[in-house]
Design goal:
binds ligand 3PZ; disordered N terminus; mainly alpha; about 325 residues; binds zinc ion; 14 helices
Length: about 325
């Protein structure tokens, strides 16, 4: 493996791009995100902190280093973001919202610490479940992010995911949520963010994931959707999120996990996609970028590794596409 790394790694030529997985560099990169608290970038991303902890922690688990972040400090931080309402904010002092509440539940589940909610949370499991379930619209079945917010399928998927991890799926009106997902289905086989909205791979993940959790994948036209998803692969191996758009590593996750859930993973060229993701690594400083030569971030790092994991790349733990 030979490489050039500089600011933004602009000008890296094809033969300099990495072709091996830089496992150790990725572990160090994620650890460094936690310790660089004296840098401006750390504070600029405070509104994403709890999501960032989930992305970083998941990446470490995939890399086989689940203990590379201190477990006790992780649990303490998650609990410090909670409110008496049961909801969580992005960081202490930030408003409670569905997106951070889902991340909180996912982080606690990942370190097998959901029991801590009842032991020393500001609200126990049932109240967390109630915070989420209350955001469901009584007639449309969709979910909002907070009491003032818009309704969309991202929140519906997050709600079912978190409630299912909490063992409280029955708090939601699941049949009504399923009916809402079906209302978001399009004639091209895909799904949009709300009824009538154009198909997009991110929304397809949320809709198919929600149907998977609800046990209703029988409602999906798998061949039609699988065709639309497999058309996302571009000549360089990367995947885009909808027609005419650029490839981006994060779609390796949204597209691939959807294909895996409908048993059509082999409908794209996994070898070419693996090579594309590997080329997006910064092999020296660690981390994965949206495309080759760009700046890395924790979001594209976790979704790049998740894509490689679904493709069965050697040396990575297996991820659940749902
Ligand atoms: C990124 N968010 O709105 S964001 C996100 N995007 O909070 C996190 N691929 O400017 C990071 N694009 C980087 N670290 C990007 C999360 C977005 C997705 C933007 C992006 C990714 C291409 C343009 C929305 C789950 C959760 C959130 C999203 C999608 C899926 C940004 C821009 C937006 C955001 C954060 C930073 C760097 C990281
Ligand atoms: Zn992206």
């Amino acid at each position: 493996m030979s490489l050039v790394s500089g600011p933004g790694r602009a000008g890296a030529s094809a033969q300099d791009l990495p072709t091996d997985l830089a496992t150790n560099a990725h572990v160090k990169y994620i650890q460094s995100l936690n310790t660089r608290q004296d840098e401006l970038e750390y504070w600029l991303t405070e509104h994403l902190r709890l999501n960032g902890v989930y992305w970083g922690l998941t990446a470490l688990h995939l890399l086989g280093s689940p203990d590379a972040l201190p477990r006790d400090a992780t649990i303490d931080f998650v609990l410090s973001c909670q409110y008496e309402s049961g909801g969580f904010g992005a960081a202490p002092g930030h408003d409670a919202h569905m997106l951070y509440t889902v991340s909180a539940v996912q982080v606690l589940a990942t370190v097998d610490a959901l029991g801590e909610l009842d032991k020393r949370g500001k609200a126990g499991k049932e109240k967390v479940g109630k915070f989420i379930a209350t955001l469901q619209h009584p007639t449309t079945g969709s979910f909002a992010g907070d009491e003032w917010g818009e309704y969309d399928t991202r929140f519906l998927y997050g709600a079912l995911n978190a409630l299912s991890l909490l063992g409280l799926l029955h708090f939601a009106d699941v049949p009504n949520a399923v009916a809402h997902v079906q209302a978001c289905a399009n004639f091209d086989g895909g799904y949009g963010i709300s009824p009538g909205a154009e198909s997009h791979a991110g929304q397809i993940f949320t809709c198919v994931g929600a149907l998977a959790i609800a046990g209703r994948l029988d409602l999906v036209d798998k061949d039609h959707l699988g065709m639309w998803l497999s058309e996302r692969q571009l000549p360089n191996g990367g995947l885009n999120g909808r027609p005419e758009k650029l490839e981006d590593v994060c779609y390796s996750w949204w597209v691939l996990s959807s294909l895996a859930m409908i048993d059509r993973l082999h409908w794209i060229d996994g070898e070419k996609l693996s090579q594309f993701i590997l080329q997006c690594q910064d092999p020296q400083e660690g981390g994965v970028a949206d495309r080759p030569g760009d700046m890395v971030d924790v979001f594209h790092t976790v979704f790049g590794l998740s894509g490689l994991s679904l493709l069965g790349f050697p040396g990575l733990e297996q991820i659940d596409p749902i």
